[in-house]
Amino acid sequence: MTALDVGGPEFAERAAAMTARLAELAAGHGEALAGGGKKYQDRHRARGKLAARERIELLLDPDTPFLELSPLAGWGSDYTTGASLVTGIGVIEGTECVVTANDPTVRGGSSNPWTLKKALRANEIAFANRLPVVSLVESGGADLPSQKDIFIPGGALFRDLTRLSAAGIPTVAVVFGNSTAGGAYIPGMSDHVIMVKERAKVFLGGPPLVKMATGEDSDDESLGGADMHARISGLADHFALDEPDALRTARRVVARLNIRKPGPGPRLDPAPPLFDAADLLGVVPGDLRTPFDPREVIVRIADGSAFDEFKPLYGPSLATGWAEVHGYPVGILANAQGVLFSAESQKAAQFIQLANQRDIPLLFLHNTTGYMVGRQYEQGGIIKHGAMMINAVSNSRVPHISVLMGASYGAGHYGMCGRAFEPRFLFSWPSAKSAVMGPSQLAGVLSIVARQSAAARGLPYDEEADAGLRAAVEQQIEAESLPMFLSGRLYDDGVIDPRDTRTVLGLCLSAVHGAPVEGARGGFGVFRM
Fold first, then answer.
1. How far is the C-alpha of 182 from the C-alpha of 157, rounded, in Å?
2. pTM for this structure?
């Protein structure tokens, strides 16, 4: 069932390259964990306050995993990695919830443009999978120097809270500190609100603003303290004595939500894979132009390593078939040789329709350079066949989960359910790359166009300048196609260690079953023949 030579030099070389990338990833995660740095972390603790991740740890059930989302948000930008917000999925009193927590060590927990994108993505995940949202609030609101990128789109956060509530998806706000100005609407629009004594400060305008606007003298406590909101305004549903008390109360609130998942659960006691997950370190070659067999990945993430392949002899550059992961059935589409031809596209469209008929979630494992180009393939209908696959992906209604293992270029990224096609979750391996095309191909295309332009005008072509341009373009596209760059811009939900793939998929599959898993029984667009 496996042809991977884990003792050979090729495997060792690939594993070493992956290990080096994982070290770079760990450094990026370290930046997020550091928050605003030691100075501000020490100051925060000196005030008797817990860190954002410590609050989450006390909130969740003991010894249960927390699937952190978008941990690299803002990486490579002018803002702190992590974007002053921690988001993820965890279990509270046996109920899976989306949890968000402001990191007050980063500019007082204020929101920058990446914070907003990260929070909106968390709400999107909660809505699609019908997961309750628990917000651990301590934020001074918008980071004022970047307000132009926050204020107008930021209203979507408040819209989301009301839409979640209207859809019957509970929202809980636990206020540990400031929640001012627009931030006051987070508890104001949540179903359940908990405030910490002498810590929570919730008001539309603080004392200085009130003084400027009305001439009234006031103090924090009478204007927006927890005691006032619990006794007078009624905004606080629960009055907590300290942070641990607030988190205990939040757990009891979630325990009383009466959340029930629709439909059948996973198979009990699923068999583990027959092969070691550590082998996944050496599957992907350093040069993504070298193909690898995705079945070597499948047998290391599927229950019992069982994979029932669909049409194995037709369109062999795309492996399709049925498996289970942590007891949940999945249909898998995995790129086998990189390029998608007409046969692969047609096979994919049929397979996606079958999964929709059977209400089975789909897992897309990416390693594609895109759809095949050239006269023979254009005449053979690659455009309409590629469009058929994209049509099927676009109109499929079962949950989709995508994992970028290697290349994910061109329209192949779309056909394999890239970010724009709204997979429930999308994760990348450190080996992944994604762009309109590979760096050398893109640089070569620009060179050919420039050369043809010069010839059309009867001008000599500067070969030295061309070489410099190609090198610069290749370097730029290479940097912009790397997973940490893309993850920093929230084009995925995180870069994961390949060895953790099965665990991450299990958590995601459990989450997507928070909503009904129902496929499209029709409603696909016109398939061109």
1. 10
2. 0.94
